[in-house]
Amino acid sequence: MSRLANKVAIITGAAQGMGAAHAKLFIEQGAKVVLTDLNEEKGEALATELGENALFVKQNVTSEEDWATVIEKTEETFGPVNVLVNNAGITMAKSLFDLTLEEYKRTVEINQVSVFLGMKATAPSMKKAGGGSIVNISSMNGLVGGAIGYTDTKFVVRGMTKAAALNLSPMGIRVNSVHPGVIATPMVVQEDTKAAVEEFSISIPLKRVAQPEEVSNMVLFLASDESSYSTGSEFVIDGGLTAQ
């Protein structure tokens, strides 16, 4: 049985990496999926690959106007939204002294402000649908320290999730955060972080970096009705790192 049958989902940052893995699994499980990203070429190609139940919309997740457009196009094509996955995010492997103010603000806009905008824009559509599930992708660095800028914003996503869960529960909207550890995505294995990630993987209790699909399985659970009594909670997928 399809676990997301008759559900309409929006996934940000879905052109590649974890977002693309989420989109593929959601389609397999019966959802209609709107993929958003700034990378139009990859986003369109993936939507075409996924078929008629997928739609790509180019989006700057830090733009309130773009969020309104995404909701409008989603409802026009598939109907009211049941699931939102706030997946878009960036990281920089720089110290407190090397990170510029512009880079810091950009990290805050993409990792933090976009989550606020996404929840605010999507909640009215979910209310029309009779409820829904919002999955905010934080990080294990929303639980423990890490890179400056990235850690800050991922802690905020965790807090926003709890606040939004209380705000939106009367509408039947659940809000949870997912906290991946080291995942083999383009963002993580980019040139300025690749060597550090390989060295760090030795310290992971399970002795390996996770694949995006392993996170997708958790996101699927939270998007589905199987997690109907879970809201305002953290779901950790880190190979045991934060257990040490």
UniProtKB/TrEMBL annotation:
Keywords: Oxidoreductase. GO terms for biological process: bile acid metabolic process. GO terms for molecular function: glucose 1-dehydrogenase [NAD(P)+] activity. It is an enzyme of class 1 (oxidoreductase). SUPFAM superfamilies: NAD(P)-binding Rossmann-fold domains (SSF51735). Pfam families: adh_short_C2. Its EC number is 1.1.1.47. It comes from the Bacteria. NCBIfam families: PRK07231.1. Belongs to the short-chain dehydrogenases/reductases (SDR) family. PANTHER family: DEHYDROGENASES, SHORT CHAIN (PTHR24321), ESTRADIOL 17-BETA-DEHYDROGENASE 8-RELATED (PTHR24321:SF8). This is Glucose 1-dehydrogenase. The lineage of its organism: Bacteria, Bacillati, Bacillota, Bacilli, Bacillales.
